[in-house]
Amino acid sequence: MTTSDELRFIARVARMYYFDNMKQPDIAKHLYISQASVSRLLKKASLNGIVQISINEPKGTFLELEERIKQHFNLSEVIIASCEQDEETQIFSRIGQAAAQFFSATLQQDEVIGISSWSESLLNMVNNLNNNFKISAKKIIQIQGGIGSPTVQKHASILSSKLAKITHAEQILLPAQGIIGSTEARTILMADPFVQATLEQFKEITMALVGIGPISPEKLLADSGNILTKAEMNTIAQKKAVGDICLHFYNNKGKPLQTAIDQRIIGITLEQLKTIPRVIGIAGGKNKIEAILGALSGRLINILITDQFTAMRIIKSIDQQS
């Protein structure tokens, strides 16, 4: 049992460290004890309730929600953006801002970044990045072919181009459509040396930025010209797909679904995505909850950036399964 004299000494060490802002080596020197003893006494201060740490969560932050989702799905990080309204336009804007802050704070020197072509949240992220980056990325690689009309496909390359300019990186484009008209045409394009050169560089990627799509096309994608026929979408729905990442569909467990469309896609696969150290999924909104849950369950991403309304729906789903 710790005596009152010992507790008094522990409290003294704790006061010097927490209130007087003394460093552990200085405390050790002042009290003629070892630095290891100081560290041990500070731990005892916590165990005996002498030191109690309280975090006053700032308004607009959701640390407990983030931690619950992070622990349940074994993620590296969860970032929840504050939104005033559960409305799509505002959600995309706010999670884009949150993603820009996280990206800026965690970007490592000479990172190789993969970015998917389509996501309104990704567009908002890039548009919210500060142009005064002190850290430089090595490459920005387009990991998914363009989608929709030629004008819109050009817009996708502008996204990676802007990110490359901001991060002082080399831009690597994927010079092909995301979904090709036939398997024969895909085979020809896959043999193209420029396409092959980009695909070969996927193995260098250290961070991937991806959107998470619902089964029904998002407005941004629908406006570009629907790339899948109604019959194809019905087939995907019959296979119980809940969402897609980089045009690859998966079920509610995050298991990739084999479809005929796979033989027409040019871009990164879900298996390749899983080998990347940081895969950041940026998504939110009512219509994406099943797609996000599937991606989390299958660990298709290991970092989630979303809004508090979507986060609360994720927690509700977790509680219902318990």
Tell me the name of the CATH class of the largest domain: Alpha Beta
> In whole angstroms, how far apart are the ends?
40 Å
Beta content comes to 5-15%
Judging by the overall fold, what is the CATH architecture of the largest domain?
Answer: 3-Layer(aba) Sandwich
Counting structural domains, the number is: 2
Reported for the largest beta sheet, the result is: 7 strands, parallel
Unreliably modeled segments: none
Polypeptide structure, described:
This protein has 322 residues and is an alpha/beta fold. It folds into 2 domains: 44 residues, Arc Repressor Mutant, subunit A (Orthogonal Bundle), CATH 1.10.10.60; 259 residues, Rossmann fold, CATH 3.40.50.1360. Helices cover 46% and strands 12% of the residues. It has 14 helices and 10 strands. The strands form 2 sheets. The protein has a 7-stranded parallel β-sheet with strand order 1-10-9-5-2-3-4, sandwiched between helices. α13 links the parallel β9 and β10. α4 crosses α14. The longest helix is centred in the first third of the chain and has 19 residues. The radius of gyration is 24 Å and the shape is elongated. It starts with a helix and ends with a helix. The mean pLDDT is 89.
Give a nutshell description of this structure:
One of its GO terms (molecular function) is carbohydrate binding. The protein is α/β, with parallel strands linked by helices. It has 14 helices and 10 strands.
